[in-house]
Amino acid sequence: MTIQRFNVLGVGVSAMNLRIATDAVLAALRERRKGYVCVTGVHGITEAQGDAEFRRILNGAFLNTTDGMPLVWLGKRAVGSFVDRVYGPDLMLEIFAATQATPFRHFFYGGAPGVAEELQARLEARFPGVTICGTYCPPFRPLTAEEETALTALVREKNPDIIWVGLSTPKQERFMAAYLARLNTTLMFGVGAAFDFHAGRVRQAPRWIQRSGFEWFYRMCCEPRRLARRYLVNNPLFVWRIAGQLLGLRKYPLEVPSTPENVSAL
């Protein structure tokens, strides 16, 4: 299935909602079509402005989900009212529910020591019958050649259909782009903080805050040392740049193979 994209500062964001995203994922799994899914918000798109390689990685994704409310609002304007938020933690739960009575297998890569195991226990309890076939906690640095070999062998042995990557942006996107072809799997999802949320390590914002567009403020208050600079610098930059795009003051070419009918201007 082809999913329309809309151009946000040169990044092609998939025009979708949770149902469309889930249907696309299940179709790819059934057809064994390899790809990676980027859960894209303001932070990722802002990171891509000064990094052409990272922008290329985002545009090479099987899906770039509408993770933040600003992208939802832009998608509704560009494509239609059906566009809604496809939030990483929600998408993860939806895919687990959809694969509960299927042979599809899941694998967790990332998180602090112990997080992936806690996540596995919680999701197995929540979705009885789902298959989580393995976990891997990587070091906080690039993998050595020996570690790469060990990871490749482990994934070959476990034979997962989906690898969930719980690192951070842009680290998780770079990892997926670099390792998708090397690992014996069909899809990889970069879901960031979803590992900590669903393992019970970090509290999620209430749903009304998520829908308001102010989840960034809630998360910054919870983790000011780690997130203050990201939000206080990136968010104003994003608003400034998107205003320029909407007003036609600056063009942001979309460097992704596409046809005119499946990419919409804002």
Helices, strands, pairings?
Elements: E1 5-8, E2 11-14, H1 18-31, E3 35-40, H2 42-47, H3 52-59, E4 63-66, H4 69-78, H5 88-98, E5 105-110, H6 115-126, E6 131-136, H7 145-158, E7 162-166, H8 171-179, E8 187-190, H9 194-199, H10 207-212, H11 215-222, H12 224-246, E9 263-264
Parallel strand pairs: 1-9, 3-4, 3-8, 5-6, 5-7, 7-8
Antiparallel strand pairs: 1-2
Looking at this protein, list some descriptive labels:
15% strand; alpha/beta; six-stranded parallel β-sheet; three-stranded mixed β-sheet; 12 helices; 266 residues
Proportion of residues in β-strands: 15-25%
Return the average pLDDT rounded to an integer.
88
Domain module count: 1
Task: Sketch the major β-sheet.
Answer: 6 strands, parallel
Work out the helicity level. 40-55%
How many distinct helices? Answer: 12
CA radius of gyration is 18 Å
